[in-house]
Amino acid sequence: MENISYKDAGVDIDAGNSFVEAIKSDVKSTFDNNVIGGIGSFAGAYALPSGYKEPVILSATDGVGTKLKLAIDSGKFDTVGIDLVAMCVNDLICNFGTPMFFLDYYATGHLVPANAKDVVAGIAEGCRRSECALVGGETAEMPGMYSDEDFDLAGFAVGIAEKSEMDTLSNVKEGQVIIALPSSGVHSNGYSLVRKLFFDKLEMSLNDEFEGKPLVDTLLTPTRIYVKEFKANRDKIKALAHITGGGIIENLPRVLPDGMRAKIQKDSIRLLPIFEFMSQYVAEEEMFRTFNMGV
Length: 295
What we know:
Blueprint: H1 13-28, E1 35-36, E2 45-46, E3 55-62, H2 67-74, H3 80-94, E4 98-108, H4 113-130, E5 133-141, E6 151-162, H5 191-201, E7 209-210, E8 213-214, H6 215-219, H7 227-233, H8 247-251, H9 273-278, H10 284-288
Parallel strand pairs: 4-5
Antiparallel strand pairs: 1-2, 3-6, 4-6, 7-8
């Protein structure tokens, strides 16, 4: 009887090693002066920034959901990494946290180094946009757990905040103005409904034209990262709400004191074409409790 190897079982250590080598330049491009050491240690190390009276460490974790399925089906892997970072760091700033570093988890049935490299390049781009360092990650090749072409992503962002700035509820007063920052598109929530509508109900394909370009390009537009806007305006901001799953209806109340309600002028929200189109087939209330609707 012949011996069998780990590779025979579906795990290619050499492919994993070549992948790590291929992503080193992308990872290093995110480093700042607080990163201690380089790539290859058992843990990422990061020196705490100075200048805080009562520093508080914040953490956030998230994924990209079934938006990944569109990336897999289209073979376009360079944007979902940006989404991964965005979903985490946009949560951090809602607690007045400044992102410091990021870690990722990539799991697949069969590691294709070129595809995984594109994903990590997107993660690195997201880290650069949010001015945080990619200090570590895990790549897991798990045959039998996932089909060969499938993969999943999870991200972990860590930030720092001044303790006195975290109580945003007490900052919110009657008569203050709500300002909505525009989204870049669907972002990373509601894609099970998106896929059900476009590909099951309407029987469209990824390459069908939508607003002058392939539909997949619109659907894979990466989630906007708001970190730089937060940093530039933090002294003027009273509270922040990240409009993700649950939409405005469920997320805005999270930053309001008990008994207070927000009055939104719905007509002032500039709907993106993708939301206008979907609104023909999805009830308005369902749209507003599923999608960001452009903000």
